[in-house]
Write a structure and sequence with these properties.
The chain is of the alpha+beta class and 134 residues long. The protein contains 4 helices and 9 strands; from the N terminus they run E-H-E-E-E-H-E-H-E-E-E-E-H. It has helices at 14-23, 53-59, 81-93, 129-133, and strands spanning 5-11, 27-29, 37-43, 46-52, 73-77, 97-98, 104-105, 109-115, 121-127. Strands 5, 6, 7, 8 and 9 form a 5-stranded mixed sheet that branches. The longest helix has 13 residues, at 81-93. The radius of gyration is 15 Å and the shape is globular.
Length: 134
């Protein structure tokens, strides 16, 4: 079985979060979605589980941080620089905050970050395949 990544995120408004992630290009897997959770698909092996606060608290009693704090930055690769710009611009249009951190263009790598509706930081990046082939 291939290794997969499931990122679990608490969200204050599940319907709004689903719309936001769909605007970024995620699709929803209805088989693993209900009125307390939504499985959002980035790729064949990368999934984001959006969880209502009540559902989140069924997994852990640790407090949900307020939306102004950060514990992690999640990074997803894109096919090219244009795709990075496209997803970040879509995030801003869907109510998120684009470029919460400074844009990064190192020539061989290009990245931008967005803040989702609940304060989670996502970085979308492209890296020149020749730079990592070494």
């Amino acid at each position: 079985m291939a290794k997969m990544l499931f990122v679990n995120l608490p969200c204050s408004n599940l319907a709004a979060a689903i719309e936001f992630y769909q605007a970024l290009g995620f699709s929803q897997n209805m088989q693993f979605s209900d009125d307390t959770a939504a499985c959002m698909v980035w790729s064949e092996h990368i999934f984001v589980m959006l969880l209502t606060h009540a559902k989140w608290q069924s997994f852990t009693q640790r407090p949900i941080p307020d939306s102004g704090s950060s514990e992690v930055m999640l990074a997803l690769s894109c096919d090219n620089k244009e795709a990075v710009d496209q997803v970040c611009n879509a995030a801003a249009k869907a109510g998120g905050t684009a470029d919460i951190n400074a844009k990064q263009d190192l020539g061989f790598m290009y990245g931008r970050s967005v803040l989702d509706l609940d304060g989670h930081i996502w970085e979308f990046f492209w890296m020149d395949p020749a730079a990592v082939a070494g």
